[in-house]
Amino acid sequence: MKMALYLLMAGTLGSGFMALAAAPPAAPEVTLTRLDCGKVQVNDLNVFSDTKAYTGQTKTLTVSCYLIRHGKDYLLWDTGLPAALKGAALKQDGPMSPTLQATLPEQLGRLGVKPEQISFVGISHYHFDHSGQAASFPAATLLIGKGDWDALRADPPAFGMDAAFFAPWIKGGSKSESVLGDKDVFGDGTVTMLDMPGHTPGHHSLLVRLKDKGPVLLTGDVAHFQENYDRDGIPSFNIDRADSLASLSRFKQLAANLKATIVIQHEPQDVAKLPAFPEAAR
User: 32: which strand partners?
Assistant: First the structure.
């Protein structure tokens, strides 16, 4: 009888220990897909240098947006140039000339994702080449730096900003969150908005931790192209030079400490750091 009781107790305790030792629920899979949100022909590259480092130079910059899938939820990071620029001809006059080949809803459709499936629209900053198609996703919660959110509702508007792109949220019909500091979007450390002010008051970069590729850092506009990044170049239209330099320093230190893949969102050479559309990094 005693032996049977010992065996029963041992079995009960054993099952309890096994339950305690059981692996936690699997973390949601995270993927990162680059979307083509246009390009900008820069006819006067000096607009990206407040020290006139690029006199007489021109450059074509890419415009990139990103779809992050977190389990069944989707975050769209930046929304690119306005859809009205689709098919626009590039011009040689003026400092910059933008154009777009395909809209975000068109590209998402190729991935089988409907606009209403987007849970969050994260905006690095309010400039038109990062927010131009935001209003196509009114069902999503808008995540934007508090400084930028406040500026959107100020009068007069700042350079490169159009409040109409944010109409669903400014009018109050759609849900928004003004982000102060860093924000862990899904609460598990996989996707984090990083406070990087200076380019605009509430500018943010994005950290995405992938299982296979490892950490990926998306710049927003903490820098616009590789030389600009390497030399700590500051555009002439940045809001605050000291904040811009501090943010760039923080970004570089994070990249080094995390051994992260750096993706400069406007740098054409960095497009190849992620799989070609429609494939995703994991």
Answer: 68, 281
| Alpha carbons 110 and 107: distance in angstroms, whole number | 5
Query: pLDDT tens digits, residue range 141-164?
Result: 999 999 999 999 888 877 778 999
Give the Cβ contact number of residue 115 at 10 Å.
Answer: 17
Q: Helices marked H in the chain — which ranges?
A: 2-21, 104-110, 128-131, 146-152, 167-170, 226-230, 241-258
Number of helices and strands in the chain (H, E): 7, 12
Q: How far is CA 195 from CA 15, 129, 159, 205, in A?
A: 47, 19, 20, 7
For the chain, give the mean pLDDT.
92
- Please, which residues have CB within 8 angstroms of residue 17's CB and are 6 or more apart in sequence? none
How much is the pTM? 0.90
- Residue-level pLDDT at 155: 83
Angstrom CA distances, 170 to 48, 83, 159, 179, 242, stand at 30, 20, 18, 15, 30
Q: Which residues contact 12 (CB under 8 A, 6 or more apart)?
A: none
Provide, for the chain, the percentages of residues in helix, strand and coil under a 3-state DSSP scheme, each rounded to the nearest 5: 30, 25, 45
User: Cα-flanking dihedrals φ and ψ of residue 254, to 5°?
Assistant: -60, -45
Structure confidence at residue 80 (pLDDT): 98
| CA nearest to 103, candidates 115, 121, 116, 89 | 115
Give the Cα separation of 97 and 211 in Å (integer): 38
- Tell me what the mean pLDDT of segment 201-222 comes to: 98
CA 266 to chain centre: 12
Structure confidence by residue, pLDDT tens digits, 158-196: 777 899 999 999 998 999 999 999 999 999 999 999 999
Q: Is the pLDDT of residue 18 over 60?
A: no
